[in-house]
Automatic annotation (TrEMBL), chains A, B:
Keywords recorded for this protein, A-Z: ATP-binding, Kinase, Magnesium, Metal-binding, Nucleotide-binding, Thiamine biosynthesis, Transferase
Name recorded for this polypeptide: Thiamine-monophosphate kinase
Misc. comment: Reaction mechanism of ThiL seems to utilize a direct, inline transfer of the gamma-phosphate of ATP to TMP rather than a phosphorylated enzyme intermediate.
Reaction it catalyzes: thiamine phosphate + ATP = thiamine diphosphate + ADP
Annotated positions binding Mg(2+) 4: 20, 30, 60
Protein's pathway: Cofactor biosynthesis; thiamine diphosphate biosynthesis; thiamine diphosphate from thiamine phosphate: step 1/1
Record bears the keyword ATP-binding: yes
Binding, substrate: 39, 249
Residues given in the record as Mg(2+) 3 binding sites: 20, 60, 197
Binding, Mg(2+) 5: 200
InterPro entries noted in UniProt: PurM-like_C_dom, PurM-like_C_sf, PurM-like_N, PurM-like_N_sf, ThiL-like
Free-text function comment from the UniProt entry: Catalyzes the ATP-dependent phosphorylation of thiamine-monophosphate (TMP) to form thiamine-pyrophosphate (TPP), the active form of vitamin B1.
Enzyme class: transferase
């Protein structure tokens, strides 16, 4: 059984599972485990790791349309280096501050691989689910896609270059930190029919929304907001589109809403909200420029 | 820097840290990471692992005197075996049900060592801290101490015996599951001046309470409620006392309260509440039967 099969099993077993966060009693709760080998490429500072790990959980809170209440982390490492730990805490605290919430600490543990589990909690009386997208709605994404893909390329270039290039590492770390879309999520929540974050990549997110909402999507590639950094690292426009669509780990919001709601949402949101296509009837498939869009992406 | 030093650093850095759980906005939040090698001895079923991992976090909620709102787990393993995963979820769900809360799922992740991070959330308007113990108060513990020490001995005997003894393994698993003291914690909360759980062992818990409350303790060994299972595995009474006092991982509550509150607390609590000694003035030390009680126990 692979992780996706196990996750399906979990959602059969537990009614609350299957959205970006569990909802209980007016609270949303989400937890994520990250490992050095798979989630923090060589060159990732502990400050960036703290920011990104906590940010990933806050992104799930944003995807429910909730305000953030608190975040914690369990931090495991082979040894506890004072500066590394302080940097991690500062990154964690800074991303919390960015979205108006509080990092309240956690657990420390000895472990051979640097491993972090973050948990974020939010509040909402009316969570936005993955189900609810309705034919005729527009499909939107916040911000731009592909920053993490570009970051990874910069980390890679920095480690393989003969001379250590601090600017590459710095640029990669900058791209690797992101603003969880808590404020935009709350704005979208008032009108969105369905919402999730793009952590598994846009393509996979669309497939997950389609499965939960029982709908199809018609996406137009030239409306996808590709981050400038992706164009810096991609050899061709096709490669840039591919990275922005399937790489994932971008933590933007993908939402569906009635077209009539669009201008109000755009006016209130603190980031650009791009329309990338429309919601189709239940028996329709998921296409980009009329071609089937594969369920391809990053499975965490 | 060892874990205790790092934890001290964390509590300097973050005002909210330093109790069993962080308190934010009427919520208490606590997170714990557990590993197969250090926390789940050979023979521990996944059902017991799920129960115990979630139970450990619920115990921290209990130690704050809060009601439990929800719990989640991030589950990492080299592979996802359907039965193992279901058993884990059932154990997690059952311990939540035992204390009237809900297991709402979590995250799955590939990792070479079976590793679980649990987070529990509770609510209280008036959390009980580790600071607040006052000279003249009595020191109490809920339930009995030493069950985990006995469990470990049974796990050990089962793996070293020539013939696999299922009854030993079953007994060990029984002892390894525990009822988080959520109801007793809420009863104690109304009158306790200070409280924490005994997960690091009674001796270390007393040192931590003393440090936070600036007090001493006079403990009487013959009043310590030693679990019957400890007497089964210990060769002598001294060994039984040692295991009950320093082994830890028992997840009982250690609380201080005015003697006048005792009968009301005992009447309302669903478990025995044993008086084991009294709180002394700030300049007094921590003694058992008049001898210094070492700060010895299990550091997680």
């Amino acid at each position: 059984m692979d992780e996706r099969a196990a996750l399906r099993l979990l959602s059969d077993e537990l009614a609350a599972v299957g959205d970006d966060a569990a909802v209980v009693d007016g609270l949303v709760v989400t937890t994520d485990m990250l490992h050095e080998r798979t989630d923090f490429p060589a060159g990732t500072t502990r400050y960036t790791a703290g920011w990104r790990a906590i940010g990933a959980s806050l992104s799930d809170v944003a995807a429910m349309g909730a305000e953030a209440t608190a975040a914690v982390a369990a931090y495991a490492a082979p040894r506890f280096d004072r500066d590394e730990l302080l940097e991690f805490i500062r990154g964690a605290a800074d991303v919390c501050e960015r979205v108006g919430t509080e990092y309240v600490g956690g657990d420390l543990d000895g472990h051979e691989e640097f491993t972090v589990t973050t948990t974020a909690i939010g509040r909402t009386d009316d969570p936005v689910r993955r189900r609810g997208a309705t034919a005729g709605d527009v499909v939107c994404v916040t911000g731009t896609l592909g920053r993490s893909a570009a970051a990874l390329e910069y980390f890679e270039r920095a480690t393989t270059s003969d001379t250590a290039d601090d600017r590459l590492v710095e640029r990669a770390n900058d791209l690797f930190r992101f603003a969880p879309r808590i404020p935009a999520g709350q704005v979208l929540a008032s009108r969105a029919t369905a919402m999730m974050d793009s952590s598994d990549g846009l393509a996979r997110s669309l497939h997950q929304l389609a499965e939960a909402s029982d709908c199809g999507f018609a996406i137009e590639s030239d409306r996808i907001p590709i981050d400038d950094s992706v164009r810096e690292v991609a050899a061709t426009d096709d490669e840039a589109l591919e990275l922005a669509t399937t790489f994932g780990e971008d933590f933007e919001l993908v939402a569906t809403l009635p077209e009539t709601a669009l201008s109000a949402v755009r006016e209130a949101a603190d980031v650009p909200v791009s329309v990338i296509g429309s919601v189709l009837e239940p028996d329709a498939s998921i296409t980009m420029d009329g071609e089937p869009l594969a369920d391809q992406g990053y499975t965490h």
